[in-house]
Amino acid sequence: MSKVKHRHSKERGRKRRTHYKAEAPSSSSCSQCGKLKQSHQICPYCGYYAGIQVKYIEAAEDRKARKEKKNKTS
Ligand SMILES: [Zn+2]
User: Which of 19, 39, 48, 59 is most buried (most C-beta within 10 Å)?
Assistant: First the structure.
């Protein structure tokens, strides 16, 4: 392994790092529900991927109803 001969300045390192940027994840609209979702990922709103239901996603109203039911019993 070769060794670094000279240290370089903070400025030099910082200048190099100006090119390092965080990219926003690419997004596309869901073919099933049309909502914006991350590409190559299951839609978090309907659970579909490439036109196939992969995951069951409970609707917001159903979730609310279930929570209320749970609160009544306890
Ligand atoms: Zn969807």
Answer: 48
Say what the pLDDT of residue 74 is. 58
In this predicted model, what pLDDT tens digit does every residue of 9-37 receive, in sequence order?
999 999 999 999 999 989 999 998 999 99
Q: Report H helices in 1-74.
A: 10-17, 60-73
How remote is the CA of residue 11 from the centroid of ligand 1, in Å?
47
- pLDDT at 38 > cutoff 90: yes
Band of residue 72 on the pLDDT scale cut at 50, 70, 90: confident
Tell me, in angstroms, the distance from the centre of ligand 1 to residue 42's CA: 8
Report the distance separating Cα 12 and Cα 24, nearest Å.
27
CA 21 – ligand 1 centroid, Å: 29
- Distance (angstroms) between ligand 1 centre and the Cα of 6 equals 55
Nearest to 47 by CA among 33, 64, 66: 33
